[in-house]
Amino acid sequence: MAHNYSKKRELDRLRFATWDKRPDSDFAKFGLTRDQVKHAQLGLQGWIVMPGDPDYDTDRKLFNPVFNAFPSMIVYCVVESDVAVALQLGQEGSAPFTVRSGGHCTAGFSAGAGVLIDVSNLNSIAVHPQMPEATVGCGVTFGKFRAALKPYGLHVPGGECDDVCIGGYMQGGGYGFTSVTFGMNCDNVNSIRVMLWDGTIVTASARQNADLWWAMRGGTGGNFGVLLSVSYKLRPLGDVFGWAVIWPLSTNEDMANATYALLLLQSQFMRTAPSANLNIQVSLCYQPGIQGGLPDSPMYPFLMVRGVWVGNEADGMNAIQPLIDAPGATLQWVNETDFDTLNDALLNVPYGMPCFPPGTPMPFEDKASRIVSRDWTEAEWLSLLQYFVTTPNPYSYFYMEFYGGAINAYPLEGSAFIHRDAVFNAVLDVFWWDAAGQAPAQDFLEGWINLMEPLYNGHVYQNYPRLNDPDYAFKYWGDAQEQLWQIKQKYDPNNVFTFAQAVTAPAGATAAKAGESLFKLAVNAISEEIVIDAKVVQRRV
Question: What is the CATH number of domain 240-452?
């Protein structure tokens, strides 16, 4: 092999030969020149995928096929310096750039018409069991993260889906099956590393750039900079106890039993849970039946209560015994095992939730979230059950993520994740596979949103955003939005990071109210200084 041979240089040469066959207009329509794109590629360890390249049509797609974006190009970053190159190229283009780690954003903000900066290859994991702490890249999936922690018996609350990445999940708060015990994912963050609009890298923690650390834990991704890595405080976690209890919803008697179960959950397991060791998720879902091994159809509606007890089976069984004894209840299964095994069982045993036909492609999806902070009446619980069984197809999926414990104990002013008085997060997912199924599914979702209007507290979990919501800022951040805007002006003074639901200046009464809130006290350390690589750079706020 020649001494100066470089595989990257050869791949760049082949890529440039392809680009040279294209007319200038293929680049100019994105506000760029052929030379600009070539120059960017030469500075990358990663690679650029252009429209018309063999991999483009696959690489542009997001998790949810309802979002069908066509970015001007995709820049795959494999080292942190690649992100700086991509940011410069993205700012030179004519359309706003976007950043993608896992592509799971429920509003499709992971791609757009401009440069798509893909950071999924920033996926290193360094575990320091003596501390215990782990530093992980923003592109690390939770399947990979759990596997890396498993040999050490360590844990951090994480995404239930294996393919969800750290990047967007943490910045929206990050709820998981152990969050009542250990807090939201963002509550367990020791520090973060962030690339700002100009390619500068900063570290943010409670002691350094503390305002950015505050803002990016709940302020949602795409607002302040590109999250590069996260250092997490880890928790020792041995085997845990999991369980599944189910009620049918096919008859009037079933409805009465399920309503009783929901009232029981409300009185004994929500605000006054037996212990912060108990993590509960309640679902309404269609299944082939209570036992496994049944034909895929027909399917029937059920109320399902599942969860994790951080402890042994004997104590866990004692905690959930009132549910098991409730009228109409069937205990489907119990298991004391490692968390990774249990996480999969909670989602898939005996059937998936929702229960899609085997071998079908990922359907189109829409969803909405509503945060609840008060008790419901018997009639209100019954109205929820009665509405759910009117679904136009058996793939609609409602669930409640219970709060309490460590989530609610975390100081309200401690991060931009504001939902510390929540009892639960109520979510409805709807699905369809073809054009004929879209309108009925989305009409069903809109009907549920209307049903929830008097039942929720006006806020929404920001990791489940919806497009075209005119009041998204209050729903996600409440009184914290004024401070978020101040911090954005400091770290992104030119508003380079922008998208349909970006942090913006609050208006009118909302801003005045926010100015008097405790969030102003929490982040009044907003100064003119940004600590960069142990140097202090003066910036105007």
Answer: 3.40.462.20
